[in-house]
Amino acid sequence: MNAYKIILSGGGTGGHIYPAIAIANELKTRFPESEFLFVGAKDKMEMQKVPQAGYPIIGLWISGIQRRLTFKNLLFPVKLLVSLFRSMTILNSFKPDVVVGTGGFASGPLLQVAALKGVPTLIQEQNSFPGITNKLLSKKVTKVCVAYDGLERFFPKDKLILTGNPVRQDLLDLENKSAEANTFFNLDSHKKTLLVLGGSLGARRINQLVEFELEYFKNLDIQLIWQCGKLYEHDYSCYNSNDTVQVHTFLNRMDLAYAAADVIISRAGASSVSELCVVGKPVVFIPSPNVSEDHQTKNASAVSEQQAALLIREQDLGSNFETQFSALITSDSKQLELSTNIKKLALKKATQSIVDEIEKLLHI
């Protein structure tokens, strides 16, 4: 049985961490005797999430460049040099057969040094508009796995492989979970269910919208599963007493939440978009305008341009939300159109496809 040494690096947000963990899990299934090491950024969430998933991790002293002039920006060159040296030390000590990056601060110096040392390298880009780290790394690494068509604008065409983004496996068979979902959330099966998602921390503008529109939703006879996020638990938990509104800080059974939903309101992070394509329910994307290079709007646009979802920008919510949402929730044909089209965009075997490419690198 083949035993390899594999380093994975990705972090800063769940959108970088969970794909890396999914890739590691698939590699571990194929090569159970292999040794794994994660490299992240100190003080970022990967330092907790990766050990919880059962993998060791080393943290680099690295962070991104702020959009405004700050003391942290002045420290960036020093942090980069320290992280490059630390990456060299890690690679010399661990001697990996392959290095995989899924984005985030730490993947930059680590993949740069690995490529310079001639170690086979692969990066996985989740977004339709890549960040600067992966754009720079793409010139050095062996392969680039992407989730969207058309990224030869940013990456060397000969290195590109369209794989999709890793998604959780329990989302692949939701049709048989509807009854369980209705029981789990104690829902009225005769009413439409709206699922509102703002990420684990929550989305302030989406929460404000839902609070403002509660009477409107009530008049439409809709029941809500509202994930408000950890940061907003105390602001919105008071609405939990309403018979048709459930407020959750966090949803532990996302498969059942998706199964229960007739329509979904969501941010448009890359992992969320990939999940929602697999889920195949009508979606209203409200992308965050506060992420680097406006990734979320570009992700949502890539789907909405295929008539596979609705896209409403934050600045248009006051004028457009009720009109667009009413047109969707009252039209079975529109819901069917969005559902049918978004399913066509799903790449359900993304994790396996990415690991297939990593396996090829292991056999070089």
Short summary:
This protein has 364 residues and is an alpha/beta fold. It has helices spanning 14-30, 46-52, 71-94, 107-116, 132-137, 178-184, 204-212, 214-219, 233-236, 254-260, 270-279, 295-304, 317-329, 332-344, 350-362, and strands at residues 5-9, 35-41, 57-60, 98-101, 121-125, 143-146, 160-162, 192-196, 222-227, 245-248, 263-266, 283-285, 310-311. 43% of the residues lie in helices and 15% in strands.
How would you describe what is shown here?
This protein has 364 residues and is of the alpha/beta class. Helix content is 43%, strand content 15%. The protein has a seven-stranded parallel sheet with strand order 3-2-1-4-5-6-7, sandwiched between helices. The chain is elongated, with a radius of gyration of 21 Å. The protein starts with a strand and ends with a helix.
